[in-house]
Amino acid sequence: MSTLAYTVSDTSTMLRRQFKHMLRYPSLTFMLVGMPVVFLLLFVYVFGGTIGDGLGGPTGGREAYLTYLTPGMLLMAIVAAVQGTAISVAMDMTEGIIDRFRTMSIARVSVLTGHVIASVIQSFLCIAVTLGVAVAIGFRPETDAVGWIGLAAVLLLISFGLTWLTVGLGMAAKTVEEASNTPMPLMLLPFFGSAFVPTDSMPTVVQYFAEYQPFTPFIEVVRALLFGNPVDGVDLGLTVAWSLAFALLGYVISKKKFNKR
Amino acid sequence: MNTQKPIAIEARNLTKSYAEKSVLGGIDIAVPEGTIFSLLGPNGAGKTTTVNILTTLIPASGGDAFIHGNHVVGDADAVRKSIGVTGQFAAVDGLLTGRENLHLMGRLHHLGKAETKRRTEDLLERFDLMDAAKRAPATYSGGMKRRLDIAMCLMGDPKVIFLDEPTTGLDPAGRRVVWSIIRELVKGGTTIFLTTQYLEEADELADKIAVLDGGRIVAEGTPEELKRLVPGGHVKLRLHRGDQVAKTVQVLAATVSDTDPLGVQVASDGSIESLRRILDTIDREGIEVDELTVHTPDLDDVFLTLTGHTTNLEAAAAAA
Ligand SMILES: Nc1ncnc2c1ncn2[C@@H]1O[C@H](COP(=O)(O)OP(=O)(O)OP(=O)(O)O)[C@@H](O)[C@H]1O
Ligand SMILES: [Mg+2]
């Protein structure tokens, strides 16, 4: 077998291991899926009426807000899923078996890629459940097949980038507690972007920050794709660039941490 | 010992320090293929550090180490292909079952489905883990976890095996089981690097022992060679006739035993020459002897003499 074939084989072995862990320890997955759903319901049913009126669309109210909020909630679903990634990576690194892997002739990166792929799949699970709940309470996406494929591709890219980043954070953390804290700022970023309200309603300083942080282009691209609107080229470029930069950063950190013991 | 055999494990002037603290002060090791080498030392001696360097887990600060001629840093992957490691702390996946842990190893060794299955069932059987195969190691006893751990390191059929304190924390029966596993492996031509705090264990298993203390090898040799390094050996004679005691004391420069009026002790290193001299004298002088026992110093004496302090012997003795 070639090196590549070994890497693929070892990655699929590690992925199976992660799946088994998820099945044996399902509470973490439930918690991760639950978070964006709770956010969605909370914002739509508790704040939605008032915020929706403030948006000034033709209908206003709860329905208008659900339409505005859902794209951001899909990003929240990814952010929620990757919180779990850092924790499970850090927890895994405390397991004795990792040292055994280090003394074996395996594709070392497979320990990490196993985590990444499992976590991306978990992200999509979170996205699917969140979108499902949104549709169940009245959200109506308006897009065609190409839009759906584009949406899936963009969400895949973003979750790939954020997952590698949090794998890096999990590897860099000295304790599991630290790993559960360091990705927290990611949870806040959608709030300081266009997820909950349009950025032009914010004070100038916040607006400035919102414009240049990664989640605003993420959310705007997803929003455009969900409603079949043309995607802004700059936003798309920024989304690709940020995602790849996150992935690269996370990859470099994790690889370095994994090889240095 | 047969020195013609190729060297399986070699370390040359290996050093390791953390910050300013020196943990290994330049050790040399050469283990011929198919033999058991034991690194014996108390807590903090540097045993695990040595194992970690030899198994490519951490780099040395200085010196070189080779497994079957492959450098542990330069040819790390080749080294990893030929070794199996059972570390001091259980290296099993706590969330997978015993059987799944072995399957995981088989897949990582790219054995193929059928072979993985065959080896897994064989190891479960050999290590008496069949009943526990469907349970997670979290529910295992210490001895079962150890056995699973060793079984996992055997999945890839390694030529060189490192065992870091494989019997610490096991009861005497569990220890015997691990010992017999080790003996069986060596019969099949495997080279074994074993660390232990128990002199009895090194004495029992090893072809060659190195005593490690404070990051330095303070003595090295077969168990017998080490015992001979230490004074305190003697031959005990039990005489038939009380009236010959005084004469014996005189001709053999012996001392009378404190506990037995018919017993005398003669200083001896236990070597053949020394025994022959004693027997010749007994014959010549017509001394009638009922019983003769040779007392070589045991490894406990060796350790005390070499390092100036004792090991956790009480603990070992209490457990045995
Ligand atoms: N990462 C580290 N940083 C600093 N010092 C270390 C580190 N790892 C080990 N040491 C020190 O190196 C010395 C040797 O440790 P090592 O674990 O090799 O001992 P050991 O012989 O295996 O002991 P034990 O019987 O307790 O397992 C100890 O004094 C330990 O404190
Ligand atoms: Mg140790």
Essential attributes:
heterodimer; A: 261 residues; mainly alpha; 11 helices; 79% helix; 0% strand; B: 320 residues; alpha/beta; Rossmann fold; Alpha-Beta Plaits; 6-stranded mixed beta sheet; 4-stranded antiparallel beta sheet; 14 strands; elongated; disordered C terminus; binds adenosine-5'-triphosphate; binds magnesium ion
Strand order of the largest sheet of chain B: 6-7-8-3-9-10
Major sheet of chain A, described briefly?
Answer: none
Number of domains of chain A: 1
Give the distance, in angstroms, between the N- and C-terminal Cα atoms of chain A: 29 Å
Main beta sheet of chain B: strand number and arrangement? 6 strands, mixed
Mean pLDDT of chain B: 88
Number of DSSP helical runs of chain A: 11
Radius of gyration of chain B: 24 Å
Number of beta-strand segments of chain B: 14
Report the structural category of chain A: mainly alpha
How would you portray this structure in words?
- The complex is a heterodimer of chains A (261) and B (320).
- Chain A has helices at 3-24, 26-55, 61-93, 97-102, 109-136, 145-172, 176-181, 184-188, 204-212, 215-226, 233-259.
- Chain A is mostly helical and 261 residues long.
- The mean pLDDT of chain A is 90.
- Chain B has 320 residues and is of the alpha/beta class.
- Chain B has 2 domains: 7-229, Rossmann fold (3-Layer(aba) Sandwich), CATH 3.40.50.300; 234-296, 2-Layer Sandwich (Alpha-Beta Plaits), CATH 3.30.70.
- Chain B has a 6-stranded mixed beta sheet, with helices on both faces.
- In chain B, strand 12 (255-256) and strand 13 (263-267) form a beta hairpin.
- The interface between A and B is medium-sized, with 23 and 30 residues.
- The structure holds adenosine-5'-triphosphate and magnesium ion (MG).
- Adenosine-5'-triphosphate (ATP) binds next to helix 1 of chain B.
